[in-house]
Amino acid sequence: MIKIRDLKKQFPNQEVLKGVSLDIPKGQITAVIGRSGTGKSVLLKHIIGLLKPDHGTVFVNGDDITQAEGHRLNELRKKFGMLFQNAALLDSMSVFDNIAFPLREKTKQTESEIRERVEEGLANVGIVGMNHKFPAELSGGMKKRVGLARALVTQPEIILFDEPTTGLDPIMKKAIHKLIYDTQRRFGFTAVMVSHDIPEVFDFVDQVAMLFDGVIHETGTPGAMQQSTNAAVQQFLRGDLDGPIQIN
Ligand SMILES: Nc1ncnc2c1ncn2[C@@H]1O[C@H](COP(=O)(O)OP(=O)(O)OP(=O)(O)O)[C@@H](O)[C@H]1O
Question: What Pfam families is this protein classified in (predicted)?
């Protein structure tokens, strides 16, 4: 379980997080939704300890990652996998080496163990035989699959997904959401996913949290969010121009 309490973060020109509190249940998928620029990625970076808050705590299985430094921070980070917006593959490396990268960085596995894990990883995301390709040779959907295989390869307890379907066509978006859902159900990791695919993503997550004006405005199951009487939630889900959320 990840417990975020009263998280505040200000950058020189703006206060982004103004007291975020959120419980992220273990072994479930939580989607974080909200307008562009509201601080969803900033929130993810606090969860993994890449940014330090001005105030507040992020407990990861009872350890406050905001207070961790050096070796302890590295140990806590080993619990995480991350799939970035653009899959963030290393262009100079083959698919095989991209997926092997976290194993080489974070573990002492032998090359034959690594080979086995990478082959398994490719099979998990349905891209067997792609080992020797380079990122430039892959379609957007393939890149996301490689990114997912890389995020999964260390069998992390928690995986953070920052807009994992950006730039894909609607059918490929659904395929990637389903793949994330199926792999989460199979391996049981805790997932936090920032997404703009609304309402499509609601079919593939357990909990939705809406970030608005620096705080988590509402949290609930996808069904409960869709039925919400909160005006900001309804405006956002419908994409209305009029309502409490101002266009700026
Ligand atoms: N390191 C930083 N230094 C200064 N400002 C930052 C930094 N990181 C993020 N910001 C600002 O914080 C705000 C929130 O950014 P963030 O990327 O978290 O938004 P987001 O909700 O993920 O948006 P999107 O949906 O468009 O990806 C933005 O205005 C951004 O410019």
Answer: ABC_tran (PF00005)
